Amino acid sequence: MSPLHEDDFPEPLDQSQTRIATIEAAVHQILDALGEDPNREGLQDTPKRVAKALLYLTHGLNKPLESAIGNALFASDNDEMVVVRNIEFYSLCEHHMLPIIGHVDIGYIPQGKVIGLSKLARIVDLYARRLQIQENMTQQIADAVRESTDARGVAVQVRAAHMCMAMRGVEKVNAETITSMMLGTFRSDARARNEFLQLIGRG
Ligand SMILES: Nc1nc2c(ncn2[C@@H]2O[C@H](COP(=O)(O)OP(=O)(O)OP(=O)(O)O)[C@@H](O)[C@H]2O)c(=O)[nH]1
Ligand SMILES: [Zn+2]
C-alpha cells in the first residue's frame, strides 16, 4: 500500500469532485468575508488548493481499520514487548481546525501474532487524518492495536503541540500535551508500564 497523495482520494472520482466543488465555493466565500479579493491573481486557484488540502488532511475519516492493516498479521510465539516510538503525525483539532503536530509511541505485548511494523504507523495516520481531539485519538489508536493484534497489552503515548494554543488563543508556543492509554497488561502491571516508559525514553 503506497501512501495516499493529495490527488488520490479513497472514493469514486465523482464524489471527490462534488466535495472539492462544495469546499471550493465555501473557501471563495471565506476569502471574500476576510476582505480579500478572491479573483486577484494570487488567489485564483486558492479555493481549489484549499479544498484538496483539506480532503487530504482528513482522508482517514470513515476508513475501516482493515484498510490500514491489510494482511500484515503474522503468527509468532514471541511474547516480548514490541515498541515503535516517535511516529510523527499531523492532525487537525476539531475545535478550530488548526494543526495538531506530534509524535506517538506504541508498545504491545504479542499473544500469538505480531503486526507489520509499518502498520502501526498506518494506524496512527488513520486516526490522525481527521478532525480530532488528542485524547480520543490516543484511545482510538490503542483500541485499534488491541483489536487487530489481540495483544495481551497495548500502551500508547502521544506528545503534541496544538497550533490553536500557539498561533492564537493563549499563545503558548512551548506547551506540549501528553496523553496516554494503557490497556491489558500495561494497565495491571507496573513493571510492564515502566519498561514501556524506559524504552520510549520517558522512564
Ligand atoms: N481536551 C482537548 N482540548 C483541546 C484539544 N484541542 C484543542 N482543545 C481545546 O478546546 C478548547 C475550546 O475552548 P473554547 O473556549 O470553546 O474555545 P476558544 O474560545 O477558542 O478557547 P481558547 O483556545 O482558550 O481561546 C480550548 O481550550 C482548546 O485548547 C484537544 O485535543 N483536547
Ligand atoms: Zn483547537
From TrEMBL:
One GO term (biological process): tetrahydrofolate biosynthetic process
Catalytic activity from the UniProt record: GTP + H2O = 7,8-dihydroneopterin 3'-triphosphate + formate + H(+)
Signal peptide (UniProt feature, chain positions): none
One GO CC term, this protein: cytoplasm
Pathway assigned in UniProt: Cofactor biosynthesis; 7,8-dihydroneopterin triphosphate biosynthesis; 7,8-dihydroneopterin triphosphate from GTP: step 1/1
Amino acids binding Zn(2+): 93, 96, 164
Domain GTP cyclohydrolase I: 23-200
Keyword tags: GTP-binding, Hydrolase, Metal-binding, Nucleotide-binding, One-carbon metabolism, Zinc
Enzyme Commission number(s): 3.5.4.16
InterPro entries, A to Z: GTP-CH-I_C/QueF, GTP-CH-I_N, GTP_CycHdrlase_I, GTP_CycHdrlase_I_CS, GTP_CycHdrlase_I_dom
Gene Ontology terms, MF aspect: GTP binding; GTP cyclohydrolase I activity; zinc ion binding
HAMAP family on file: FolE
Subunit composition and interactions: Homopolymer.
Family per record: Belongs to the GTP cyclohydrolase I family.
NCBIfam families recorded: folE, PRK09347.1-2, PRK09347.1-3
Name this polypeptide is given: GTP cyclohydrolase 1
Organism, as annotated: Halothiobacillus neapolitanus (strain ATCC 23641 / DSM 15147 / CIP 104769 / NCIMB 8539 / c2)
Primary gene name: folE
